[in-house]
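Sanity check. The docking grid for GLP depends on where the pocket ends up, so I'm generating a full predicted complex first rather than guessing from homology. Inputs follow.
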Amino acid sequence: MKLIVVKDYEAMSKEASNIIKNLLKEKPNATLGLATGSSPIGLYQNLINDYKNGEISFKDVKTFNLDEYCELPKSHKESYYSFMHRNLFSQVDIKEENVHIPNSEGSDLQALCDEYNNMLHNATIDLQLLGIGANGHIGFNEPNTPFGKETWVVELTEKTRQDNKRFFNSIDEVPTHAMTMGIKNIMQAKCILLVANGKNKAEAIKMLASGAVTEACPATVLNLHPNAIVIVDEEAASLIK
Ligand code: GLP
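Predicted complex below; grid placement will be based on this.
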């Protein structure tokens, strides 16, 4: 795993978006695994600017998102479907048919998981972008998720629901479940790029940087990946010795 420490959120976003920009220049039909949360918003903004400046295009790019809340319709402003369209897709030339986001709207969630998983099996993700939860979760794979899991429905921990409460009016509105790529799916990407900023992430980054590999901190699986890049700001790196 390659760890890059930069000053702040802006520098983290720049470093990360440059990696994606260079990939899209080299391979205009790349397949990207994408993430939500506040961590990638800055890098998405940079990619939108790169697109507007004519440096890159998304017209042949395919995307697969990591996860989606259950119990929220796509039309809800906090669904990850809405998030991705608001923060990236509506501002670039990506084709809607090339966008894949787990579909959690339906009664047979297992069938919907299987459907997404099959799509992942038929794709090769060139670069998987990740954020990290304060408890080390990736996608919505909470601590103690077996590394062998593929797309599944997870019950969110109280910690994650509290962390994500800021996007909702009250804790009661935060979904209790989510559909997520499993850790095995994530690990199949050719390259993994994780971004983290802020003190809230320092414990999880300390664990990841220690070289440990433990299901108690899902992100540590990246220590087993041949091409993982972790870009963090000084606050997120503050507990690394
Ligand atoms: C959610 C998402 C994760 C994301 C995490 C951290 O739980 N499912 O993919 O990494 O939040 O979010 P943030 O970047 O807002 O700290």
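Relevant for the grid: The longest helix spans residues 9-26.
Also worth noting: The first strand starts at residue 2 and ends at 6.
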